[in-house]
Amino acid sequence: MGETEALRFLAERFKVTQKEVLKGIGDDSAVVELREKTCLVASTDTLVEGVHFHLGAQTPRQLGKKAVCVAVSDIGAMGAVPRYLLCSLGCRGKDAMDFIEGLSQGVGDGCREFGVCLVGGNLSESQTVFISMTALGEVLRDDMVLRSGASEGDDIYVTGTLGDSALGLRVLLDDCGIDGSEGAVSRHIEPTPRLQVGRMVARRGVASSMIDVSDGLFCDLEKLTSEHGLGAEVSLGSLPLSPGFLSLCGKLSEDAYRLALSGGEDYELLFTSSVRNRVSIEEVSRLCGIAISKIGSVTAGRKIRFFDEGGEEVFYDTGGFEHFC
Amino acid sequence: MGETEALRFLAERFKVTQKEVLKGIGDDSAVVELREKTCLVASTDTLVEGVHFHLGAQTPRQLGKKAVCVAVSDIGAMGAVPRYLLCSLGCRGKDAMDFIEGLSQGVGDGCREFGVCLVGGNLSESQTVFISMTALGEVLRDDMVLRSGASEGDDIYVTGTLGDSALGLRVLLDDCGIDGSEGAVSRHIEPTPRLQVGRMVARRGVASSMIDVSDGLFCDLEKLTSEHGLGAEVSLGSLPLSPGFLSLCGKLSEDAYRLALSGGEDYELLFTSSVRNRVSIEEVSRLCGIAISKIGSVTAGRKIRFFDEGGEEVFYDTGGFEHFC
C-alpha cells in the first residue's frame, strides 16, 4: 500500500468526534478551538530506532503506546492537561503497512488511556525508523509549573518507583529473561505518565518546580536545581525502589542506587515543594493512589549530594543518557 | 559537545522575546497564550535524508530554512497565520555540532522571514538524518479554508509557477549544473511559501478550497476534487511555466507539462473559487505581487482531464510522489 492509502487508513482510525476539533487528520493542518483563558502547551519528542528502541524488543503496538506516553508525560510535567497529538512517522517501505497498522493500534490505546486524540500526522520512508510525536495541551496560566521555581529549603519529591525501566532495558538488551524481570521490562516498554498527580499538584499550587524523569533522576534533578543556581541533598535510603527491582538488581549484580539515580525513562514526576505543603502532598498521593516519596531537600550552591542511611556522603558516577556523547 | 550543550546553544539562539510566549525552549513543553476567538492550527512534516534531501546537495543552513518553509506552508494553506515551531532533529553523532549549528542558522533565517518563532525542540542521535517540524498557527474560524469546499463550476487557481522545483531536483540529482539551471535549483532548495496570498484569499472569503502544492499539481488537485466526488478540467496552456523552466526543459529533453503536473515541492497555493470572485482574485494578485493563474474549472464526476491549446484532451501519467510505493 502507498502513502495515500496509509493516510486514509489513519484518518479513518483516528476519526475525531470532539466538537472542538474542527479538522483532524486529512487536511493541510489540524484545527482546534481551545478553551478560553487557557494557555497552549506544546512539546515534541522522538523515539529513534537503535537509540530509544530496538525493533523486536517490543511489538509495534507497544511502541505506539510508549510514544504517546512519552509525549503526554512532558505536558503533564507542566501541570497541564494533554489534549492533542501530531505524529510524524518514518519507516522502511518493506512491511510498512504491518508496522503502521500495529503502531497505530498502540497510538489508539495510548489516546484512549490518556484522554488525547491524534489530530495530525505525516508518513515518510526512512532507513531508520523514528516516531516523532508532538503533544498539545492546555493549562491555566496560574496552574503552570515550570522547571525553574524551586527555593532553598524546598522538599524534593518523586512519584512511584525509580530504576525499574532502566533495569528492564538491561534485561531486554542482554536477552536474559530471568524470573521476576517481567515487571521491570513492562515498566520499560509500557511506562505510565503521572498525569493525575501532575495535574493535582499544579491545581493546588503546591509544586514550586516540576519535571518528568526521562534522563535519569540525577540529570533531571540538575535541571530543577543546578541549572538555577541551587543544589540538592538526596537521602539514598528515601529513594523509592520496588521490591522486585531490588531483588532483580541482586540477581544481576547491579548497584540499585546507581541504576535508580542514572537510569532513564522512569517517567515519574520529580518536583519541589515548600515544607508547608507536606500534608497536601500526602493527600494528593492518597487521592491518586500513587506513592509520592520525599527524597531530599533543595540547598544553596550548585552541588547535588547523596547521603546513605548512616548520614555518610556517597559519590556516584551519575551521568544520565545524553545523545552525541 | 553533548545533547545538553547543544540544547543550551539552541535555547540561546532561539531566545523568545514575544510576550505571549510564556515559555520557549528549555522546559518540558513550550507555553503560549493564544489570541482570543482564534482557532489553533497545527501541522507536522518531516524531511528525511535520502528521501526528501541528500546531504551535500545543499548546506545545513539551506536545509533548516527549507524545513521551516515546508512547515509554515501547510499553515498558510489553511488561510492561517503561522506563529510557532517545534523541531525534532535526528542526526549522526559525528559532526553533529556543525550540522546543528548550520541547520539552526537556517531555521533562524526562516523564522525571521516568515514571522514565526521556534518554541520547542528535541535532539536525538539517528543513523538517518531527519528534521521533523511541527508548525502552530492561528486563524479565525470563519477565515479557515479547508481542502473540502469546492463546487462544480468553481475556477481553479494556482500561484507563481509550477515545475521549477522538480526540475531543480533533477539538475541536483544528475549533477549536471548546466547554464540557466540556478533558478530551478534555488526554487528546489529555497522554496517560498505563499503566506500572504493564502491569508488574503482567506480573509476575503474567496477560496472555496485550498492546498499547497507539495506532491505535484495533479495529486494535490485530486485532494480538492476527486476526493470529494468532484473532477476538474485543466487547460495545459494556462499552466504558469517560467521562461527559465521552459528553456531548461528543452535543454534536458524534459516534457514541461509532465513535470509541471507531477513534479512535487512547488509550495505554490492551489485553490478553487466561485467565478464571481475573479476581480477580487486579480486584486489579491496585484496587492501581493504574485501571479495567480486560472488553470481550469471544477467539474462533476471524479475525473481530472487535461486539454491542450487546441482543445484536444491529453493523457498524462501524472502520479506524484508517494512514499512506500
Description:
Chain A is α+β, with helices and mostly antiparallel strands and 325 residues long. Chain A is 34% helix and 26% strand. Chain A has helices at 3-13, 60-76, 96-114, 164-174, 182-189, 195-203, 217-224, 243-251, 256-262, 278-288; strands spanning 21-23, 30-32, 38-48, 81-91, 117-125, 130-140, 155-159, 209-212, 230-235, 269-273, 292-300, 304-307, 313-314. In chain A, helix 2 (60-76) runs parallel beside helix 6, helix 4 packs across helix 5 and helix 6 (195-203) packs antiparallel against helix 10 (278-288). The radius of gyration of chain A is 20 Å and the shape is globular. The mean pLDDT of chain A is 90. At the A-B interface, helix 1, strand 2, strand 3, strand 4 and strand 5 of A face helix 1, strand 2, strand 3, strand 4 and strand 5 of B. Strand 3 (38-48) of chain A pairs antiparallel with strand 2 (30-32) of chain B, so a sheet runs across the interface.
